[in-house]
Amino acid sequence: MKAFALSLAATMLATPMLAMPLAARTIMVAPGASDQETLQTALIDAKPGDTVRLAAGRYALVDGVSLDVAGVTISGAGPGKTILDFTRQKGEGEGLLITSNNVVIRDLAVENAKGNGIKSKGSDGISFVNLRVEWTGGPKSTNGAYGVYPVSSKHVLIDKVFVKGASDAGIYVGQSQQIIVRNSRAEGNVAGIEIENSYDADVHHNVATGNTGGLLVFDLPDLPQQGGHAIRLFRNKIIANNHPNFAAPGNIVASVPPGTGVMVMANRDVHVFDNDIKDNAGNGVMIVAYQSAFTDKSYNPLARAIAVHGNRYAGNGGKPGFPGGAEIAGAMGGALPPVMWDGVIGYAPPTGGERAADGGVVIGDGPAFTLGLVMQGVPTTAARPALLATATALPLLPPRIVLPAAQEARAAR
Amino acid sequence: MKRLVAAALLALGAAPAPTVNTARLLAADAAPRLADYGLFADAEGRVPAPGVTLYTLNTPLFSDYAEKFRYVWLPPGKPATYTATGVLEFPVGAVIVKTFAYPADFRAPDKDVRLVETRLLVRRASGWVPLSYVWNAAGTDAVLQRAGVRLPVQFIDARGAARALDYAVPNTNQCKQCHQQGTIATPIGPTAANMNDGAQLQRWAAAGRLTGLPDTLPRLARWDDAAEPVAARARAYLEVNCGHCHSRAGFASNSGLYLQADEPVPAHQGINKRPVAAGRGSGGRSFSIVPGQPDASILLHRMQSSEPGVMMPQFGRTVAHDEGVALVRAYIESLPN
Fold first, then answer.
1. Does a structural domain hold residue A207?
2. pTM of the predicted model as reported, rounded to 2 decimal places
3. CB A124 within 8 Å of CB A96
């Protein structure tokens, strides 16, 4: 049973006869006859500071695998070389699960997970670096939900990650804080990159293309962390996100119309700037309230204090997918202006009365228009579209996200 | 189940009284063999050692139809302490033991019983430590298994149908995933409410195994007692089978779906609650529970599924629990629309 390809090698130079703190080790793993047990055993045996190094090759995994040891790096030989293959997965909700702090997962691929690709739950200091998470049959409703999925995590770094085929979001950051998503590519997912119920995120230098929606910033009710805010989306390429929506109905992303470049829903202090937003057939940028009825007394469904400026638009809006969109496009000369706001500035909380938005929507580029819906819950078919004036005074940007230097150093290897 | 143990006890006759090896239990490294702990008087793990006490729960976790034998070992002179909510407080050195077994034919549940695995939760000074020991085919020895393993299991079910399944022994991380509440691991089953059958806790108190037992006790319904209200039975079932993850401190805290039997907020119970990260697990349904409409309810859909990525719980079973599904279906049907 233990005769598997696992060996230990000290990464530090051997220093004979000296009392030393436990040396960080490298646990070598190679593909073989019992990949599930080999890899899972290595992840259980790892001690803080260790690296679990996965040699090149294809690992046939029949269940999820998980890591619950802090300070461990899992590294492969590259996202084209070390492949965790979950095609024959029989159980568990994700391929790889991480539940410990200060973990780096890098230089490998996860293919065909039955549920999510790689998830972290409750991890402080989680870095996903140079990864590929892919459903190799292309976009399908039977693919897993999320590619890379940190949730209830803090100090989250997603760098040089490629995700393709997720039936919900390729890169999904949920209920987390202090987040950087950069240099990544999301292609052929329902949502490319989604930041949900999260605080303090920088999403920059990514490419989102061929998804139903490119970049989404959402906030939903009835969750332990809500009130999403302080999100910056900048220097991304958000190109031709026109894929038919293949999410299972019932999920929030199932409501994203094909052709959506950027969608901001029910958040505060979101800044969208210096992006290339092109060839998305619906809205280049869509800013909306949460549409559905809700009973959560502490939930704010409004998009407020939103700033959109300095983006470069081309070829958006020719074929909007939301109800009434085609008619509005027709009235506006055949194509929607690139920035759309639903114009919702108030809502009726479950406690009674009415509440107004604490902060407006500022468009510094455009052209932009409003649907003039005014109150949360009014359907888009009741829109009274009108062009919006371009603002010259822009709000201050939220501060740049700076992750702990040690985390950046571990991720830079 | 009790008959089996009684028969085994008789068979034991006058063998010398074995002792539980507390030092081995508390050692930092796990013993390679279950027998090393001395928790059982026989090599086959059928007869608990003196002081290792069988206990029962009103509503147990479903585990692929496995029969389960639950025991607790308390170090001499160290009783558990009553708590009204959550699990009883157990002293350092306590061990909770659960053996999973399949009779060849569930219509004769005491005959030809094959033990599959024995799981331990050991209360060390640092906290609870989960361990799993897998029985060999002959049923004569159980060895430590940390990385999980799949075992083919066959049996005739209670209705006489031949069943075969791919039983999954959990890996150490999976043990922790279910047993984690916040930052600490904890047992799940032995709460006062779930152990309260009207006599068991009183018996423990009389034997000096439990202190602080009040006169009035909380009680979790028996999921399979048709005399009890459907809602109480179903919510007890959901608490035991789902609530360890679906709680504010559990692995599924981020879902906002909290399945404790006493959860007061309808949305957190799942009623008209939209999914968050269900993905294709939603099965195209919009709400966890639609009152009066079980087939429109995601919760029931995921209970009925045995497909990874859809099924709930995510592990711990490989087949649907038909009787549990029927109960939750009846509960959802009974909810006022």
1. yes
2. 0.92
3. no
